[in-house]
Predict the structure of Prepilin-type cleavage/methylation domain-containing protein.
Amino acid sequence: MRSGFSLLELLVVLGILAVVGLLGYSNFAPAYRLQAAATELQKALQTARTEAIRRGDAVTVEMANGELLVKVGSQTLARFRPQNYGATLQAPVPGSFTLNALGRPGDETKKEFTLAMGNRTRSLTLEASGRIH
């Protein structure tokens, strides 16, 4: 009498594990890409805030061609492209605003940003105090 598993049994188990792994990956990958996009968006907003404070001058955040740009005058300091992640960005209206020398929105209102990818969304808020979460 033999003990152990036959080659056929091992292949069936490996096939089942592969299917389960692919199902898990198909749910995980979009969530990971959306989280990565949100992290990059937060980094761009933090760059705008930090530069406004460091320079002691206003920094502009604007939406152009589906991108978020952080600018001082005509110089672009940071660029966020949600399409690199397969996401879309819904930003505050109007399409641009400034952060003052204190790193706060010039109009003292909070700004909501929403990233969307399929049926998943992720929101970031720039508070009137300049806090980003």
Summary: The chain has a mean pLDDT of 90. Residues 7-55 form the longest helix (49 residues). The chain has one domain: 7-126.
